């Protein structure tokens, strides 16, 4: 049966000329060209080159979306192998690492150059199971591979594992996604219990058992000094030591635990409280004298921010009174959100170079304070009593914008808000936009939501949102660039003031919304770290320039499993991204616990972070700071035995039998 093709011409008769071929059907224009202007001809639609450029840009965006989807699938697969199979995959694993791990699990030998062959001695048997120490092997759903997967648990000795933390010179977007994956928190006992309930439910027998688990296998590991922070309320607003005998009793207990030293907060709002350039150090001088009696070292924290809760419950530490007097006439010295609300916790970085503080810039005020401290306590530094000085660089003493202030109603896991609407930050933004030739970019995003918004509820942070547009990339580069510039200026003067002393900078752990594309909470805090960009590398490169020590905050199970899942939180992924990036830059790291530790599980988590067992380069933390807070100080009989064992593990010592 023959079929007639539509519009087909019959063959020409003999001697006739073949008719010219019909022109190809015209394609319907797409995009902006499909509007009314397209029907008026090519001339009205614009030059062909411009239309081609627009189409290429659209294709780039579509390719970017496809690549994100592919990387998300890969990251989930890698996370499943790590979590449920305990495969020793590097943080930046690729398919070669996966194939090598599967081959080793099946009993094959895989050399670093890729040579693969079946082992001759045990051709059909997996490697023997390791000594698990304090770790537990996660259950695997496939029974046939249980023994094989167990042999690659986290506790496997280094010589029988692949290098689990090999790093490249560059951090690619796909490598970042390898740590952005779904992880289930294994300690479900924290799911619905508060700290008070945990305290009531724990007895000494439980703590002794967890101490035995905590001991693990940390003998002959590197010695990591341990510092315990003293309560902030021990110095009152007149810079007087409140309870000298109470301080001695506290130091006596800490000395019995064999800690190396203590952490002391020196508050700008107390020392230079009333008159510019008039510094009162008497209370701190008395405190350092008592600490010297116990032969403990001191890490000093120069706090250039305010604090509403000092832990004592009756002391409010604000910025200096003369700063607050200036603010009555010029509130733009504070960070400001889109609604015009001021954050009085710390000064805006917009006044770093503006002489608005009684003839001084913000940077000059910080430098004068640091120089005064050095001149007052130079002898203690020379004697070795003061081992390190931490410089506060933002909200809560951390290097970040005050994007999540609880006083403004923020609650976890809100994304926070950009803090760039004071007069001086807007002036800086306008200057940057003019230099780019786009004056209309001199504004903050108008679709970035509010403090307690979720990323998908905003047009700026949602998947494919404006954060990845041309304007979004310009704004976020500028916003994070102000943070990096502030770091550079303050640390340049700190190095000059302290002349060779160890300087520490604290970087926050903003881990909620880490498993989303935009990393919204990190963006509002000043870290331009979406899925397709490493936002920590430029910051850590600047810290390396000034040869400082990076302090990373280590959180415990502060929120329930359900809350963290809903917030797409990933503390582990963020921690390892920052630590690997720091080590790539040759930057030393120290750890601080943000919450009081309640049992051996939390101590074990800190130990595993401070002393990675399967790191071929033997990286480890420089020291550890323990943030103890009331009412836990009152529970010495419960928590001090646990802390004593933890300190011994940090020191690489074996706890004595019966020691809890």
TrEMBL record:
InterPro entries: BES1_N, GH, Glyco_hydro_14. It comes from the Eukaryota. Its EC number is 3.2.1.2. The keyword Hydrolase applies. It catalyses: Hydrolysis of (1->4)-alpha-D-glucosidic linkages in polysaccharides so as to remove successive maltose units from the non-reducing ends of the chains. Residues 50-64 have a biased composition (Basic and acidic residues). The keyword Lipid biosynthesis does not apply. One of its GO terms (molecular function) is beta-amylase activity. It is an enzyme of class 3 (hydrolase). GO terms for biological process: polysaccharide catabolic process; regulation of DNA-templated transcription. Keywords: Carbohydrate metabolism, Glycosidase, Hydrolase, Polysaccharide degradation. Residues 52-201 form the BES1/BZR1 plant transcription factor N-terminal domain. Gene3D superfamilies: Glycosidases. Residues 1-72 are annotated as: Disordered. Residues 31-47 have a biased composition (Low complexity). The active site is at residues 398, 592. Belongs to the glycosyl hydrolase 14 family. This is Beta-amylase.
